Amino acid sequence: MPLARLLLCILQCTFAAAVLSPAIAVAVNLPAGSQRYASASRDAGPGDSASPHALKAGIERLRTGTWWEANRKIRPELAQVGDLMFLLPLADRKLEPSSDAIGRVQRLREALRSHLIREPAGWTRLVAQVRATRMKAGDASAVLLADALVNEVRYRDGTDGSYYSPARFFAESGVCKDFAVAKYLLLRDAGFDIARLRLVSLAPRYNNTADDWHVILVVQVDNASEPLVLDSPGVSTAKRAADTVNEASASSGPSALLSAILAGRVPAEGVLRAPVGPLATPVSRSGQARRPLATVFNEQGSRSFERAAPGAQRRASAARRSANTTYVDEMGESWEVDGSGTFPKWHIAVDPADALAKPGQASRLISVADAGVRP
Question: 278: which residues sit within 8 A by CB, 6+ positions away?
């Protein structure tokens, strides 16, 4: 009898371990101190429930779109990627993440750790008001409010390469990446699933310009035809409506209006009367719509949309001998380049002869897209 009970106990423990191991693994991969969010904000991967039609439409946008070259890398435009950044899973094991993507995820996790230790004074008021707006008026209204609140922090150039936590950002100000991280964490704390949040790294459209990279937040909201872009104000946004002369001359920190909101003297909706910086806008109508997209990421992982520029020339078929020179990338895909302008622009070439011989060839498209699509 004791032996039978022992065997039963072993079987029960084995079954429990099999059930709990995946959940434990997810929690372990989260930043230290953030495991209390695991059950509420785990990114289950929108790609799991994405419709084949939506995935096909997104890949077709990439296949027919323009890819900008800089420093021998080509990248699609933000508007061409669109909702595909949410349909494809992050941290795909089939794809090796770039060193830039790995570094961005690590810096975001470091900012999250710092945020869990220390929040700005009044942060809970912002979170509560964004959450209340979401309950009352829906996702889009809450996103608009969060975007306008964070844009009330003054822009200050010359920061280091780390991602500031909101506490440091509110005290010292920052650049585009710090605005994007603060918005990400504000929406996260207000209850938005991180599966709906993507930080996006936009690349320059020309060579050797390291300081022209830009980071924004893109949010997928309910009942919207496309995601919303949350951009940051630039250096030129010097004076806020509620600033006095002395406050307007300040180089860092929240505006007078945001300071009053943080202190509880003014309701958060006050920022919507005269918002600072660009408003949250659908991807296709954003001021960044045509910028090349390098990487999308959140605390769970990243996905790179950049690839090496095609190098080897391909011999043209008889049907294309009068056309532009064709190049082949490492996946065997044919490309054409328009080098007539300041910025080289690449497009996937469609050879009629190849299309007839291999009608399914176009579906291979791009490793960053189809390698992550789940059947």
Answer: 231, 232, 233, 286, 287
Query: How far out from the chain centre does Cα 14 lie?
Result: 39
| CA quadruple 152, 156, 157, 158: dihedral, nearest 10 | -140
**Residue 131, both tokens:** 């959450």
Give the residue ranges of DSSP H helices in 94-156. Answer: 99-117, 123-137, 139-150
Prediction pTM value: 0.79
Contacts of residue 108, Cβ cutoff 8 Å, sequence gap at least 6: 163, 181, 184, 199, 297, 298, 299
| Domain-wise residue ranges, the chain | 75-307
Amino acid at 275: P
Q: Compute the distance between CA of residue 48 and CA of residue 303 in angstroms, rounded to an integer.
A: 16
The pair of three-digit structure tokens given for residue 243, joined into one six-digit string? 């600033």
Instruction: Determine the pLDDT at residue 311.
Output: 79
Matching residue, tokens 């920190």? 253
Angstrom distance (rounded) from CA 328 to CA 336: 9
Q: What is the pLDDT of residues 322-371, one digit of tens each?
A: 346 788 877 778 899 888 877 789 998 875 555 444 444 444 554 544 33
Q: What are phi and psi of 321, to 5 degrees?
A: -65, -20
Q: How far apart are CA 124 and CA 104, in angstroms?
A: 26
Neighbours of 71 (CB within 10 A): 12
pLDDT tens, 268-287? 999 998 888 888 999 999 99
Beta bridge partners of 197: 219
CATH 1.10.3720.10 at 75-307, yes or no: no
Query: Half-sphere exposure (CA, 13 Å, Cβ side) for 294?
Result: 22
Listed residue (362, 291, 295, 289) closest to 332, CA to CA: 362
Do 210 and 234 contact (CB within 8 A), yes or no? no
